[in-house]
Specification:
mainly alpha; 2 helices
Length: about 120
Amino acid sequence: MATTKARQDIKNDLNTLKEDLKVGAREEAARLKAKAAEAEARLRGKAAEADTRIRERADEMRDQARDYYDQARVRGREYYDDASERLDEAQRYITERVQERPVQSTAIALGVGVVLGLLLAGRRR
């Protein structure tokens, strides 16, 4: 009978141990789920921060590109105005020289025309 009682005590101890392990496993699973939720929340927060930084950097780069474009446009306009002014000066100079010496200018123009005509005619042959 003592062995039966000992067996029953061992059986009861094993059942208690089994229940304790089940409770411990549930508690550990709940603790791990809580940690996973915390980690997910931190990760989402960092992702939101990264998204904000990326958007800010994109805005900065867009503004910088706009500034470069504006500077290039202003510089291009300056170059265009300068070239236009020089062309006008050259045109005035040529007009004045032609008016000062019309016969000489006509002769030069005729000579240039003849040379160009010969060069173009030579290419056709």
